[in-house]
Amino acid sequence: MSQSILQVADDLWTGARQIEDTHPFSFMGEAEEVADGVAFVPSFANVAAIATDDGLVLVDTGSPPFAQHNFDTLRRWTDARLHTAVFSHGHIDHVFGVAPFEAEAAERGWAPPQVLAHEALPARFDRYVLTAGYNEVVNRRQFGLDDLVWPREYRYPDETYADRRDLVVGGLDVRLTHARGETDDHTWTWVPERRLLCCGDLFIWASPNAGNPQKVQRYPREWAVALRTMADLGAELMLPGHGVPVVGADRIRQALTESAELLEHLHDETVAMMNAGARLDEIVHTVRGPEHLLERPYLRPVYDEPEFVVRNVWRLYGGWWDGDPSHLKPAPAGGLAAELASLAGGAGRLADRALEVLEAGDDRLAGHLAELAVQAAPGDAGVHRVRARVFATRAEHEASTMSQGVFRWAARESQERGGGA
Q1: Which domains are assigned to the chain?
Q2: pTM
């Protein structure tokens, strides 16, 4: 990145850059000193490095493809040994950069780095091993990476904590606090002497990832509590897990407070409708995020979406059944599709109608009809070509990584079975 990461951050905040054109998951660059003794590596995910008299403290270490890059660029900033690495949570893009530092320590005869994390993180790694195949499938689909290989081995922490852990490294106070938010094992890190907050993925320059449709439960209410707690710290520099730094106490407070307000609104409106007896379908098509918040450059739905947060709130409190009695013990999807196709005059008619309503601007209905047509006639190449067109168009019309990933996957699947678009 040729421009200073702090200048990019300012441009995004003021509107000189648009977040849609500068996706928070797209940054890659060199370590940059963003405060005295504090470096920031924009990566997938970001790495924060804090210099102390006894060596470096890292908050997060990056993903498998970028572990060596993160090590190399930090070594161009300092040759100090890695003393402690803090995992903000167990997602694989945050926890795979320790190995190069361990190899260096062994080669130079240094004490090995210590890894700290919340006590729920080891169970996450255990689950990742158990469900490696599933995670491989859904992450290939989410990110469009057909050759992604899900890790089977992990660097477990040397020490875990429950609610709070205060460290002193090289005379510097480093305070770890647990919060349930995007994950159940999240840690945010506060360095009071530097007025530095490393918030992990509790803030990512996007609408909070509190609804991911292919991943496990998120916790929006507790997430909002953590955001408001962090907002009261008076931090002057915030380094997030994705996206760029936020500089200045007023900006940090605003970003965190408004993120909390968005989550609280989605949570409370969903729960209110649940308490009134509404079905999930009604809630999903009623509850919306406040426009004045979604227009903020740091709350645009470019990764996750408020609609998915609503579904996650339902899942948290209401279980898997959506309130439709026909969905409690449904017929096989293919059988229902075949019956509807027969009533409509064949799968081809469903496909034709899908294109008609797509042209009329109803992407959602077009998606239903195209999917029904394929389920009714899975071997029909022509029907697959329609499905490919419908979901390719849907992907073009979406802003979030989540929706784009699923729709592009569906389009590619039908392109292969339909002999091309």
Answers
A1: 5-262 (3.60.15.30), 331-418 (1.25.40.880)
A2: 0.96
